[in-house]
Design brief:
single chain, alpha+beta, 2 helices, 9-stranded antiparallel β-sheet
Length: about 180
């Protein structure tokens, strides 16, 4: 598995994750629907989508997330020497539910850099496919800078929205 940052522009990029959690919003934050730890997951980041695939004890699970269904991309840095960085993907599912996919990354992967790259790729993808009157909404996010470190146990999130991409560096969400 390729885990170094390298150049992100245009090519398919492959990172590994060791844990996956899928959550739904609740009044108190996020409720976990599925939590899988100690798994080898592959994340392929491409120009128009990203794909999460894993296999644990049977049939493989493969989920393609198109950039048009991303509502946000965030990260949580390590909080101690034993902890791992986490990448958070906010998505709208086929049944219109808001879901959150948290990926626990290998120690060699910089979650902030991955989140920034995904946000920029999503903005560029939306910019290419947006009607002429809406393109200015996406142009700012395509060149957005790296988000500052969030407070302890929080995620820093790039808010993408569903119709307009807005960089929101101050936005922090509570970890589930």
């Amino acid at each position: 598995m390729k885990t170094s940052a390298g150049t992100w522009e245009g090519e398919i990029f492959h990172i590994g994750a060791i844990g996956v959690e899928i959550s739904k919003p609740s009044a108190d934050g996020w409720d976990a629907l599925v939590r899988i730890r100690r798994v080898n997951a592959d994340v392929l980041i491409a120009g128009s989508s990203l794909t999460v695939s894993l296999q644990q004890g049977g049939a493989p699970f493969i989920r393609r997330v198109g950039y048009e269904s991303l509502t946000g991309v965030g990260y949580r840095p390590r909080t101690g020497w034993r902890s791992r960085e986490t990448l958070r993907l906010g998505v709208v599912a086929e049944d219109r539910r808001q879901l959150c996919i948290d990926l626990t990354l290998h120690k060699t992967v910089d979650a902030a850099e991955v989140a920034q790259s995904i946000a920029q790729r999503a903005a560029r993808h939306r910019l290419r496919h947006a009607p002429a009157g809406h393109r200015d909404h996406y142009a700012g996010l395509a060149a957005v800078a790296r988000l500052p470190l969030p407070r302890l146990d929080r995620f820093a999130v790039y808010q993408l929205g569903t119709t307009a991409a807005v960089a929101s560096p101050a936005r922090q969400t509570r970890a589930s």
